Amino acid sequence: MNSYFPISRINQGKLNIFVDKLRHYYYINETFKQLNIDVLRRFPAELLSINYRLKSEIFPDALIKLFFLGEILSIKILKKIFSSQMITWLINIKLLKQYGQQIKARVMIIPFENYYFTSDFSLRINNNHLVILTKPRHTEPVYPLSKNSVDLWQSLINKSVDTVLDLGTGCGFHAILISSTAKKVTAVDINPRAINFASFNALLNKVKNVTFFKGNLYKPINRDKFDLILANPPYEISLKKRYLYEDGGPLGDKILKEIIEGLPNYLTDRGYCQIVTKIFLSRKVTKKQLSINWLNQAKYKVVFLEFWNSDIYKYAATSSFSFLTNIDEFEKKINQTISNLQKMRINNISYGILTLKKSSYFSFHEKRFIGFLPINSSPAKIIKSFYNNQ
Ligand SMILES: C[S@@+](CC[C@H](N)C(=O)[O-])C[C@H]1O[C@@H](n2cnc3c(N)ncnc32)[C@H](O)[C@@H]1O
């Protein structure tokens, strides 16, 4: 079921008709909100219950089953809204796959505001059964739009900049959104399928001013400097290779450190770097000390806005959740995670947005987003206030 879109052969006109149909039949953000479906979290039990609530014969229900839940659908139903030619075309461009008289989506489509983002499914419903998709050999899944992607988006303190670099673009979410306010957007991902999906998503959303490169972080960039460097890098502790989109090395900060090390070469003097990440802390290691370590003597004003923090037990339970295939495996994974964290003496996991800006001296500031906040405060406003009061 692994899709690879034939980008150069995709007809923009037909794609626009497809998107218009999605909108016309209310496959939109608003519908998901009304149905109380959290498009960013996708809890397995919730997906099953949504599938039971929706009816295959009506729209937008059938579209939600097809493109959000991954459920199988009869072609006859789909023909109520798409012509036969359109269905054949969607099969040809690898968006749909036919099984006799039935059809399945090869990719998930998530609506966000007025945009649509395709990515791989990590779970899908198959004839009312929940199927957890494990990583196919030789293929790296494309990370679906998630809560952390949106947390970073809502924390960006300046979206109207000249030049943006999106490191680890995945489905192209930030690059595509910011292209409406930034002049020039460059996006990089090491996973060739991510670049293929992001390029497809740019077409899907009629976005033209983003350049996508396949490569390792700054490698594809020549001498350019950027006003904004943003990243939602892989940041989970990984002792062995698993998923490119989440393997952050033994301390979770391998890619994060490489991004920060590149800032003196790639960030303009007035530019910001904003990264969403988890930080793994032990009694002896503080966030400030970690920042000093990542910066390796470069002088930056660093602000960390924390969204939540957790002890290792809660963290083990919630982070192992995505690997759930059966209860034994779930239990094993929780125990393994706790034991690994204990071995490394980690006692706290903090999640939030790291913002860095060049300065004449190093400083570190921290604030929690949860708690006593004035009404109307957004993460971006809070972070901005640290830099305005310099
Ligand atoms: C957590 S996903 C984030 C995707 C997307 N930016 C978002 O916010 O939804 C991390 C992405 O980083 C990419 N990645 C991992 N290591 C990388 C590297 N060394 N260079 C470039 N991209 C990398 C992965 O392929 C994946 O697409």
Question: How does this model look, in words?
Answer:
The protein has 390 residues and is α/β, with parallel strands linked by helices. It folds into 2 domains: 7-132, no CATH class; 147-388, Vaccinia Virus protein VP39 (Rossmann fold, 3-Layer(aba) Sandwich), CATH 3.40.50. 35% of the residues lie in helices and 25% in strands. It has 15 helices and 15 strands. An 8-stranded mixed sheet has the order 10-9-8-11-12-14-13-15, with helices on both faces. It has a 3-stranded antiparallel sheet with strand order 1-3-2. It has a two-stranded antiparallel sheet with strand order 4-5. Strand 9, helix 9 and strand 10 (210-214) form a beta-alpha-beta unit. It is globular and about 65 Å long. The model has no long low-confidence stretch (mean pLDDT 92). The structure holds S-adenosylmethionine (SAM). S-adenosylmethionine binds at residues 143, 145, 149, 167-170, 173-174, 188-191, 194, 216-217, 232-234, 244-245, 255.
Give me a quick take on this structure.
The chain is of the alpha/beta class and 390 residues long. The protein contains 15 helices and 15 strands.
